[in-house]
Amino acid sequence: MTGFRGLAGSGKSTALVELAQTLHRQGFEAVFCAPTASAADTLRRDGLEDAMTLERFYSDLRTRSRLSPRSVVVLDEAGAVGLESMAKLFDLAERKDFRVVLCGDTGQHSSVTRGDALRILEQYSGYRFSELTTIRRQKPAAFRQVVELAAAKQTDKAFAKLLELGAVTEALTDDGRLYQRAADAYLSATKQGRSALLVSPTWAEIEAVTDKVRDTLKAQGVLGQQEESVTVFDSLSWTEAQKKNASQFVPGQRLRFVRQTKHFDRGDTVEVVAAVENGLRVRRADGVEVNFIPASVAASFDVGEARELKVSPGDWLLLQANHGKEFINGERVQVREIQNGRIALADGHSLPAGFNAFTHGYAVTSHSSQSKTVDEVLLVASSRSFGAVNREQFYVSISRGRERVHVFTDDADLLARRVTDSHTRKAAVELQGLRDGLAKLGFVRQERLEEKTAAPVVEDFHAVRQRRPMRQTRLSTVQRLATAVEDVRRWLGHDQTEAIEQKETVAEKVGPAESVKPAESVRQTETVKPARTVREALRHHQAHRQQQRRSGGIHI
Fold first, then answer.
1. Measured between alpha carbons, how far is 531 from 522 in angstroms, rounded to an integer?
2. What are 460-469's pLDDT values in tens digits?
């Protein structure tokens, strides 16, 4: 296995095309794939016509049957692949004895699913890779310098450079002025024949700027005044763990199947009627109700809600699901007309009947923008969406444009601080230092610390599997003794007051180093000074719990 890291705009696509030609000349069979349909579509438009999604590569028996030691699987956007999917690729490579080339940038968005596989490989394995470090996408030198700073994780300096260039606009959001300015900039660019992309961290802000764009287009006569209301599927982006829990679902939610199952075809949308024992009762489009167990097919459907979307002739739509090879998730299409609920497109095609995974296509999230390139990129990030702003989101957003980037916000100072936050997830190997530090502070039992230093014992794992020791309650010695005394009192039915006196006596016998001062009163409104240490905080928490038990607030 080998690979190369390419910064945003450094020419990864060009390098992949050259790699394909070289492999062909040397007699290797190259298979190009990517984690998302939009990324695979980008590869095909760059000349790699047989590029496919990683999921299709796993399920395509014909492609897998041709794999041999002369095969090379090239995975683009590898930074967006999770641990499970990456492990599946490596297992297949080991069985079929083919080679793997990884291409990606760990500075951009990571996998939506569990684990940052490529980053872990780069930092904690023997994986060796080359790097493309010269950014070529951005034409103006000043703009290119901004992206270079962001790629080097110096997003504070990158934002300061944008301020210096006058590429940051501040305006209020309450009166809609911020979104109107962003909409005007977008429409000005498209009117001049330049491709433009509005990017925002949240869908709430996307909808706000989209409304301004559509209102302006209606006023200009670009959009038809007559709108049709279309029911669309609005994903809730649930994890597989959430989908496996039937109690999470509520009546009225929609399930959209992305894979064929025993009871449902790919593309089917059903409505949740009720939760039943171990599963759900759902209603099909024809009104028939069936029961099924979501835990058994959690990876086969998406959970969302039904939403009414206003669509006019001339509108741009963003597809949010695949439908064969004709319609790709992340693709933008323009509406020509709407007849009897069917949407005809400007390119002569029509959206399939029952296809409901789309929204307006004027603004997108940074996740959707990754792998795209336009002339101008316009980042809209007000204080309403600062919680979703981070270093990776900022880097991906501003690096999409060739000619120009402009930021619209209502608080430039606060945004400058938020773009320095990283949302990199910690792997288990990266938490060992924290675990060791907690152990030194006494938060792990002493015998467990001794086990780490003891000589390892070689034994048959399959014959004897040791149980992991139970974690002890993180209380001081006095608090554990006081809890034990109270338990004995409760078993014997002693009076509450006697238990309090007994705990105080135990605390005095332990010694001054571990003593606990008895409470002077049992008033619930007693003012307690903030604990300055972890140990003091635990003591205060235990005293508060005992107070609530005496007053009947907690029943055990």
1. 19
2. 433 333 433 4
DSSP label of 296: G
Q: Which range, 79-83, 167-171, 438-442, 498-502, is most confident?
A: 167-171
Hunting for tokens 């060739």 — which residue is that? 402
Sign of CA dihedral 112, 118, 119, 120: positive
Q: How confident is the model at residue 482 (pLDDT cuts 50, 70, 90)?
A: low
Q: Which two tokens stand for residue 189?
A: 């660019």
pLDDT at 211 > cutoff 50: yes
Residue 400, judged by CB atoms within 10 A of its CB (0-12, 13-18, 19+), counts as buried
Dihedral over Cα of 75, 78, 80, 84: its sign: positive
In the chain, the N- to C-terminal Cα span, in Å, equals 57
250 to 240, 254, 282, 283: CA distances (angstroms): 16, 10, 11, 13
What phi and psi, each to the nearest 5 degrees, are found at residue 518? -70, 150
What per-residue confidence (pLDDT) applies to 460? Answer: 44
Percent of the chain surpassing pLDDT 90: 46
Quick one: how far is CA 432 from the chain centroid?
A: 24
| DSSP assignment string, 103-170 | EE-TTS---SSS--HHHHHHHHSS---EEE----S--SHHHHHHHHHHHTT-HHHHHHHHHHTT-EEE
The overall average pLDDT reported for the chain is 82
Say how far apart CA 422 and CA 429 lie, in whole Å. 18
CA–CA gap between residue 64 and residue 61 (Å, rounded): 5
Question: Could you report the per-residue pLDDT of 351-363, keeping only the tens digit for each?
Answer: 988 899 999 999 9
**Cα–chain center distance at 72:** 29
Q: Are 165 and 429 in contact (CB under 8 A)?
A: no
- Spatial strand order of the sheet with 358-360 comes to 342-345, 332-339, 316-319, 358-360
Count of CB atoms situated within 10 Å of the CB of 437: 10
Task: Calculate helix-pair angle for 534-550, 477-492, nearest 10 degrees.
Answer: 20
User: Among 227, 180, 185, 179, which Cα is nearest to 204's?
Assistant: 179
Encoded tokens for 340? 């009897």
Res. 442 pLDDT band, cuts 50 70 90: confident
Phi, psi (degrees; rounded to nearest 5) at 287 = 95, -10
> In this model, does residue 514 exceed pLDDT 50?
no
